[in-house]
Amino acid sequence: MAVDPLIELRDVNKYFGKLHVLQDINLTVGRGEVVVVIGPSGSGKSTLCRTINRLETIQSGHIAIDGKPLPEEGKGLAQLRAEVGMVFQSFNLFAHKTVLANVSLAQLKVRKRGKEEADRRSRELLERVGLASQADKLPAQLSGGQQQRVAIARALAMDPKALLFDEPTSALDPEMINEVLEVMRQLAREGMTMVVVTHEMGFARSAANRVVFMADGRIVEDRTPEEFFTAPESDRAKDFLSKILKH
Amino acid sequence: MYVLTDNFSLYGKGFLGTLELTVYSSILALLLGFVMASFRVAPVGSLRVIGTVWVAVLRNTPLTLLFFAVLLGLPRFGLVLPFKVFAVLALGCYTSAFICEALRSGINTVPTGQGEAARSLGLSFGQTLGNVVLPQAFRSVIPPVGSTLIALAKNSAIAGAFSVTELLGTYKPLNELGYSIIWSFVWIAVGYLIITLSISALFNLMEKRWGVAR
Fold this sequence. Notes:
The complex is a heterodimer of chains A (247) and B (214).
Chain A: E1 5-16, E2 19-30, E3 34-38, H1 45-51, E4 60-65, E5 68-69, H2 75-83, E6 84-87, H3 99-109, H4 115-128, H5 144-156, E7 162-166, H6 174-189, E8 193-197, H7 201-207, E9 210-215, E10 218-223, H8 225-230, H9 235-245
Parallel strand pairs in A: 3-8, 3-9, 6-7, 7-8
Antiparallel strand pairs in A: 1-2, 1-4, 4-5, 9-10
Chain B: H1 3-6, H2 8-40, H3 45-59, H4 63-76, H5 83-109, H6 112-120, H7 125-155, H8 171-176, H9 181-210
Helix pairs in contact in B: 2-3, 2-5, 2-7, 2-9, 3-5, 4-5, 5-7, 6-7, 7-9
């Protein structure tokens, strides 16, 4: 894998004030690859995810998507973001719009599709995430798991080259986590390029091509799930795994 | 008591004058306030500076002083317009600073995740503001914008001191005609109440229709 790089980060550094949250990050995600980023909280994994579509700016280093460097603020950046979907921990569905309108909005405004075409595509995607019957409801009327599946459909509506997941199941009740993970597993099987920040070790084992372990702003390990979970190299990863796998 | 029926046309002119000032200035204030609020949250630094300076200057200037500046100052630079237009300019610009801040506080009530989600889908700053942030901000700014426009209606009385026909100014001719000053003012107050209570009613209706459901 990783012969055809889609997302490339080179020597990326980021500070929040004095805090050095990303330290010399080098990461390549190949087309069709699923990379799961795990690590203790505060390790910079969410920030890493958010730098890829420039929701967080970086102080130094290079990020390229599909061979093109990440543009500065403006039209070029908006175009790039349309190619890289993002799913957030807190869903962030547009609270004043129906489920259908949530999925259709960017198709109308960014992809310039007609209303009928956009709505048809939206209904297809809602069908795919199992929510076709909820199209006319407002986000607040749905459960967390349903909202997150709508958010995935909304990201897919742009036909993105890659999807970024920033702790997509961390705000969900345990029984809703699976319905979201199932949608994500299906996407992984279909060959979608995904960067997933998560605490779901089961998902990492079953769906990831690679596991990236971060601690204190650095990538400590970058290996296949079997290798990482059965024989972690670093003490930091051993310590982390012993804590989360115990209970 | 007969001061109203005897001088109905005088009161009527004053009332319409105040109404006109209120309506035109409100429209100007809402438009300018909207533009300035957009500036204040824009990603472009120079726009943010313009918005901040606009609010700082206009919000902190006494309205009477602003009237002097506009009505006496602008003609010096060759801009001669009817006093009524000047009055609308002064009132509208002054009030726009308050509208801007009310809108901005509304924008701040919208969770940042909403804007991030919109931007992550490829929407531009303008599209994000227009389609996602402002429609949600709008619901929470209905009450403060209503208050600001009521204050505008009452502030329009200052225009009377600059020989613009408006409601408060009607007391002068009535006083000269020898009518009871108390009843003159009672009817003037009623005139203001008609306007301000109408604004209240309108905004109550809007709040019922579009307000944040809790």
